[in-house]
Design goal:
Arc Repressor Mutant, subunit A; Rossmann fold; five-stranded mixed sheet; three-stranded mixed sheet; 7 helices; disordered N terminus
Length: 290
């Protein structure tokens, strides 16, 4: 992962932070350090991706406790720092707390970014500011990795055309179609973060009219993606399929299933992670074809 530990590179490494996929804090020997609550990992993730690995106390309080008044958020931060130091034990010195700022020392990023795993996949929902930060970090990393795609043979500057096809389903159930629409939006959002990809959204078209729509638009996509929503007896299933629109060869296909009796079968973060996984697989397809 692109590391922002400019000032720390020459220091001895005491712990490693993994942010590709799920959050993990590891000793140099590979032992995992378990952290308290939601805010513990989130605080370290924010610091690790910040310039010089530091942030102001006010910034961290606004990110981690956006709805708490100032006295409470300050108390929460002090309590969290104390809990983190206890969990870190002999490694507690990596967390340096000054009067107005907090920073990390002796920390290294573990793992490289890829499109098979999202940045900080298990990030908690701590409010709008934290979600904005998370979205920006994910976009920054995706653009950095996408810039490494080879150029040549795929049109201007090696760009790839991807068409989003209408959902492939026989159900007319409103909720299932709404979930399919949500996944489509998130998939398109993830794909458009890739600087080497042109995305054409035909998801609202009639399936039988796709050929005519592509002809009218003058588009010959290298890859097509469709959402496959299925409604069973007590479950909902959402699939994503990437295939060649010319040969119909399926390059990638996966699905997730949830019990509808729970009232909210798919969480928004679960659907977003699934869309990110699909984009990772599509990126691999692009690399193999380049």
């Amino acid at each position: 992962m692109p590391c922002r530990f400019e000032a720390m590179k020459m220091q001895e490494v005491h712990v490693k932070i993994q942010l590709t996929g799920v959050f993990r804090l590891l000793t140099p020997e590979g032992a995992e350090v378990l952290l308290p609550g939601k805010q513990g990992p989130a605080l370290l993730a924010i610091l690790a991706t910040s310039r010089h690995c530091e942030r102001s106390r006010d910034f961290l309080k606004a990110m981690l406790w956006p709805r708490s008044p100032e006295p409470q958020s300050s108390a929460n931060l002090r309590s969290l720092l104390s809990a983190l130091r206890k969990r870190l034990g002999p490694k507690a010195h990596i967390l340096v707390a000054e009067r107005t700022r907090i920073r990390l020392e002796g920390v290294e990023m573990d793992g490289q970014p890829d499109f098979r795993h999202e940045f900080y996949e298990d990030a908690p929902n701590l409010g709008e500011s934290f979600e904005d930060w998370l979205t920006q970090e994910r976009a920054s990393i995706r653009n950095a990795v996408a810039s490494l795609l080879p150029v040549g043979g795929k049109g201007v500057a090696g760009r790839i055309s991807i068409a989003i096809y209408p959902p492939h389903t026989s159900t007319e159930e409103h909720r299932t179609l709404a979930i399919a629409g949500c996944v489509t939006e998130q998939l398109i959002r993830h794909l458009r973060m890739l600087e080497t990809v042109d995305v054409f959204d035909f998801s609202a078209c009639e399936p039988s009219a796709m050929a005519a729509e592509l002809d009218a638009a003058g588009i010959v996509p290298e890859l097509a993606v469709s959402i496959l929503p299925v409604r069973g007896g007590t479950f909902d299933q959402i699939g994503i399929r990437a295939f060649s629109p010319v040969t119909q060869k399926v390059h990638w296909n996966a699905s997730i299933t949830a019990d509808r009796s729970s009232g909210m079968p798919f969480r928004p973060d679960q659907l977003d992670a699934f869309a990110g996984q699909a984009v990772g697989a599509i990126h691999d397809v692009i690399l193999q074809a380049a």
